[in-house]
Structure formats: structure tokens, C-alpha cells
């Protein structure tokens, strides 16, 4: 978004003169929504960011939390929505590159990548092209840099046919003692290492801060192109520099390029800088202005004491990493930029990095009423078999194997619970102990578009449950709020409500929000916002990875129990959409008190070794959760739904397909069921034993001793594995 | 104590994984050696680990195969030093002519990361000393260019006389000819394979229904370096 006339006026006032064109470009990059959070900054203060595990909260390139007393986890989320709409392959790939570099800034080793992809319907030709390009971009980039991609999330919806949401996250680990938390000092040299600067991604963050044009091809110059080999060299050489204590400050050159990296560093640490632009290594001849705002990828800034320069140069040279020394920090708070000795900009760092926050107008559109509408007349119930098969083959539920098999999810030899088998991924620390962590990304664009407050809260709750289901204690989350145009009050309302929903439930669940990102202007060329979406990535502590839980059924003869109470909450369900095309009604209510109680119960039961499998109940409801466990374990089940704890439920489909929160299905070892019941009683948890695991491949549900559904497991398996067909075509 | 070099090129990414298994699981001495610093004389065995040397530009393994490090490797082979190439390391060995055949783009056109089941034929040499003929080895693959190709004549004259790893029926992930997952030199001193044995050497990394099939390769090396082969 170009600067407004008021903003230009303000710049004149700051400088006390006419700005140069370089200065204007620097302000434009720095004051863009993407870099400055000007529309969201005031509301973001609502989020709880503190907690006893938090080492570094929001503010630096990435937050850090204490996973164990001697080990930190560094993780962050980012969106690459706009570039991926124009050039899905490079847009998604460079999203991965950027998020990894954020993790590197604290000196952590990147050990996991997540992609949360909200894309169009596979059968729409344009959406299909985007899906393939996005996944291939992530695959080619993530695989090449040797960081496993796992634990992501997907949703397929016609709302994203032309403007997908590509959210990516990275997790790094580091012993607490080596985290790079220092500040640069006056006199420290500014080194830019990595890729040569070129004319790509010019003002990319500004491009991301306005709606997409109808003819997106014209924006191609604003998309950067990735070079994973250089990224890998950055990762490897930074590990060496950090382990030898040669750098005390690292910063990514991301949105806003050199301008943002310099001005944020200076503003955060009360410094100024002298920059000699002609020293920057480049791919081609660039003007000073282009040098300042180019968003060429795979570049990082390091601050190096002059006495350590020689050693740093040796490491960079031996690792084939190109670099240039472009200036130094000063103590006076002013950024002075020269090009061949001629001054092209002189700006106070604080003024540049601190645009005024804007309080945007906000009001609900009439469309928001659909989330308040009780469902008083449901369509007649279909055949349950048809419903279950349709749900399992829905791209939102079906196995995501077509995606995760394109990602190297095992490199690093840390992946204990792999994609497709666990509600979250579990990775070991590989430090000689059996300690590890779980991580998962979640969102439900349908929920947040119907009811942004409760929908966003449910995204947090689902992430929380997914971590618990594998046996992890959740310790912190980061969030990405994907919203429409902040200048339109009826778009901004969704953002405001999503944010408040996250703030509310994280307080209830005592889960700090240690970092996050906001993406605005997610609207199509007609000005319609895509489904506003709250993406949550959470991490949890795992004391012993060998006890981590997966969801597939393991043993015939063991029992099946449902944890939690089921309510008639079909609003916003996959069932109503898939069977009847209805996307409205009250969505399931967030239930933080039950979430906490039931999580304590599940974690305790796992620790005591009472369970064989755990699966959280989410999209598709109880019937889908049971079917997934059966299909993945290749074992049949026999379940009587009469004994499921329910309140106010009148119809069978409400019981089978409601997406009520705070529920799990567990497989209980047959000789431990009494212990489990006692534990439930002690903790005040609603638990109902509903059936058992069979040694034959038949999936059977009954009510009042009458079979209401009985299907061959192969039929369900075929439905569950249908995503490849949906994307690649063919029978 | 025998010394093992794990040669790292720009873009290699399984070097630390292999070192972890050699050092912490099998108990050998292993070092990651930057390709510029690799010389033949100091090492008792060499592993080329997986990854994307030089970003897979041109063809997987093609650029690394033309480095001085690989010239040194040829010398090592002539001196009888055991050489193992895993995934990209296998691609490099094939590109360098140290092993026969070629590795083409997967028939699906996509990268694939998946556990597969293979079996070993004619095990011999330092990398397979403890494996039995026909033994089933489970390991994951993770590659985009792993479709093995060889002409029929060379298949009969070379492969059928050498140690070989084959995907079991239903597990060929990439359309490899003759289901070839890995091949060795006739004496087994050089061995290359697409699956990742280092990811299949510890029980808790193995998904249910599979077993850690990679470990026997590293244990064979340990055994062979101590006893000879």
C-alpha cells in the first residue's frame, strides 16, 4: 500500500524537509501493514504473552520458551498468502525460507517445519494448480534444507479458490545456554551474508498490504524466488558461528529487506547506523533505492565485533557463503545511508520503525447473524453409512498422505510420531535423553467465518487437544490471524473478534501466546474477503517420547471409551456442509474448563500406561474419529452409541457428527479399564465405555441393540484414502 | 579405533543423522568432513550421506560427483576402503561411475517419503557382513530421483553377480527397474542404496508393523572393521 498523503505529511514533519525518494521508499516499506502492524498493534495487547516458561516473548524475530529447565524451544508462524496466490511454487517456498531464518536469529537449530494450507477445492482447475504448486514449493524447499515438514493442517474450500492462505511455522531447539540474546553495540560491523541482492520482491511487503489485483500476473515482480541451497549454507554456517560465540546478534532480511532489518535493529537497541550501499554484493546493477527495499531471499544480517571479523570471514569463506561488510552501528540513533559517498538518506531509526498505530473502525456485517442462528429445523437424517463415507472422503477429513509424503518428514532422525498416525507430531531432542516435544498446527476456516470469536477459541482448543492426545503437556502457542481489508469495518470486525477469542481462551487454558503474525487484505479482486482464519501452532512438552500416543487401534479385544460430553452442536459441522450444503448455525461452544479437566485425565492415563490409542474428536465428530482409528489400525470395532454421555441430543446424527469440543476417543487395555474408570471418577471426568476392538475388519455401530451402521473396513479405507484421486484425477 | 568419514557437500543434510547412528547406536568413531577437507589417507571407511548436494542442480549428485573429493574417493575404493552411499550419496556414486546404473526421476513425478520393505540378495562385503541372503530390511525412502535404471545386459552381467537390495512386491515407491533399491560392487566394498538405513536403526523411530532394518548395515561395518571381511 503506497503511503497516504497524511503519512507523507508526517514524514515531512519528522525530517523537517522534503524526503528523498530513497527515504520515501524506506518509510513505505517500514510503515506497510505487513511490517508495522499499524492496524492490529493496539488490539494485540489483549493477548496473554507471559508465563513461567516464556524466555523471549513477542518483539524479536522469534519467541523462545523453556521446554525443559536446560532446553529452549524457539518457534514462530508466518503467512505467505499473497505471493502464493500469484506464484504458488515460489510463494510457498520462500515462506519456508523466511520462517526458518527467523528461528536462526536466536541461534536455535531448526528441527521442524509446519505448513497450514487453506486452499481451494481440488476439482476447481485454478485451485488445483495452486494446490500442486504450493505443495511442490514447500516440498522442494523444505526437503532441500534438511528440516522435516510435518504436523501441518489443511482445509479445502471454494472461498480459497483464487486466494489461498499459506501459513508456515518453524520450530527450533537449543540448549538455553547458547541462545543468542545479545544486543549489537556501537562500532559493531554490519555484515550481510547469503544471497546476492537482486531486483526481486521489490516492496513485497507493501504488495502484501493491499488487496490482490484482478490480473495477478502483473504482480509477479513482487514475488521472490527461493534458493534452498543458499539457505542450507546459512543454516550450517550460522550453527558454527553461534557455537563458537562469534556473533551476538542475528537478524533476518525479510519483508522490507535491508531497510527493515537495519531500522528495527537500531530502534530495538537504541542505535544508529552508517551504511555504505555500494558495498552490498548484488546480482545486477541496482539503484540505491532498489538496494534498500529489495526482498531478495536467503540474506541475513549479523553484528560482529571488529576483533572477531577474521574468524567470521574464515567460516563464511570455507562454507562458500558470500557476504559483504556494509557498515557499522553507531550510538546516535540515526540511520545514515550513503551510496558512493553521496548521502541518500538520513532518518531517525525510532521514527522509521515506529509508525503511529491506527484504531480501525469495526462492526459486524449482517452476514454475521448466521452464527447466532439456532438450528431449529434440521433436514431428515440420511443413511449413516452414506454420511460416514461422504465425510471420510471429504478432502477436509481424508488422509493427507498425498501431501505429507511429498515432504521429507523424517530427516534429522527426531520424528517419533510421524504424520498420519498422531494427532500431533512428536520429536525427540536427540540429546541422549528420552525427552522431546510435540507440535501441531490447527485452524477451522468455516468456524471462524461463521463465528470468529468462538471459532478462533476452538482453533486454540483443538490444538491444545491434539497435543494432549499424543501425551504432551501444552506450554505455549503462536497465532496467525488471516483477515480481510482492515480499512473495511465489516472485515476488521472478524479480525477483532478472532483476536479476542484467542485472548479469552488462552487466558482460560493458561497458555501464553508468545508470538504471532497478522495477515490483512486477504480478499479477492472483487473485494470479498476469503474466509477469515485463525491458525494456531502449539508446542507441548514430552517427558518420554517412547510413551507418545498414536491414534490407530492396536489390539483386538481392547475396549473403546469416549471422554467428555456430547451436545447437539451440528452448526458449522462438516456433516451439515457435506451432506446438505449448509454452512451456518451456532458452532460448537468452546469449553475451556472441560478441556483442562479432560486433558489432565488423558495425560495421567497415558503416563500410567492404561491406553493403547488416543484420538481427539474434531471435524466430522465421534463417528469419524472412530472410523479413522479403525482404518489406520486396520481393526474393526463394535460400538453401542446408547452409552455415550450426551446432553440434549435428540437425533442419532447429532450424536455421531456433532463437533462438540473437549472430547476424545481412547482405546483402553482390557485389563486396565477399572483403573481408568476410577481415575475418571476421581477427576470428575465424563467417561463412557462404548464398545470394543474386533479382530475382523467390520465397522459396526448399534443403538438399543439394533445395528444402525455396519460396513466393511475396506470401504471406509477407500474413502479415507481418496485425496490423491481428488487431486491427481483418475479412478 | 577405526575412523569413519562422513563427507559433507554443500546441501548434504543427513550427515548428523548418520553420525548419530554410527557414534551413539553402533559405537564407532565418526567425523563429519567438509568436502574440501576430505583426503583419502586418514579414513578406514567413508559414508556419503543423503541430502541435496549442490541443491540437486543439473541432476541429483551430478555436481558433487565432479569434485576433487570424489576423485579421492575413487582412490579410496582402489585401496579397498569401504564406501557407502545413502540416497543422494548413492546418486553421487552412480554419477561418478563407482556403481552401475542411473537414478531417474520417480515415475509419479513427485518426491516420496515413505517406509518400504526390501530384501537383500547376495550379501557380501563390509556393509552386509551380518546380513543373511533374503533377509527382509525395512527402511524409509525420501527422494525425488530414485527410479533405478540399468540396461538388461548390465543387469545380468553386473547386478546379478553383486550384492543387491530389492523392494518387495508392492513396496516399489518410484518405478525402479527390477525393483532395485540398492546395489553394490561385486566385492561389496562399495554399496549404495536409496532407502535411509540411519532412519531405521532405532526401535522408537520405527512405525508399527515395520522393524529397524537399517541397523544391520552399520553393525556389519563395525564387525567388519574389527574382524576384516
Describe this entry's structure for a reader.
The complex is a heterodimer of chains A (731) and B (229). Chain A is an alpha+beta fold and 731 residues long. Among the domains of chain A are: 1-31 and 182-355, Alpha-Beta Complex (Phosphoribosyl-aminoimidazole Synthetase, Chain A, domain 2), CATH 3.90.650.10; 392-398 and 551-731, Alpha-Beta Complex (Phosphoribosyl-aminoimidazole Synthetase, Chain A, domain 2), CATH 3.90.650.10. Chain A has 25 helices and 26 strands. In chain A, strand 17, helix 18 and strand 18 (513-519) form a beta-alpha-beta unit. Chain A is globular and about 90 Å long. The mean pLDDT of chain A is 94. Chain B is of the alpha/beta class and 229 residues long. Chain B has a single domain, classed as 3-Layer(aba) Sandwich (Rossmann fold), CATH 3.40.50.880. Helices cover 21% and strands 25% of the residues of chain B. Chain B has 5 helices and 11 strands; from the N terminus they run βαββαβαββββαβββα. Chain B has a 9-stranded mixed beta sheet with strand order 2-1-3-4-11-10-9-6-7, sandwiched between helices. In chain B, strand 3, helix 2 (68-78) and strand 4 (83-86) form a beta-alpha-beta unit. The longest helix of chain B is centred in the last third of the chain and has 13 residues, at 215-227. The radius of gyration of chain B is 16 Å and the shape is globular. The mean pLDDT of chain B is 96. The A-B interface holds A 136, 139-140, 143-146, 227-229, 232-233, 318-320, 404-413, 415-416, 418, 421, 428, 430, 432, 545-546, 550, 552, 554 and B 10-11, 13-14, 16-17, 20-21, 24, 34, 36, 50-52, 54-57, 110-114, 140, 142, 144, 196, 198-199, 202, 204-205, 207-208.
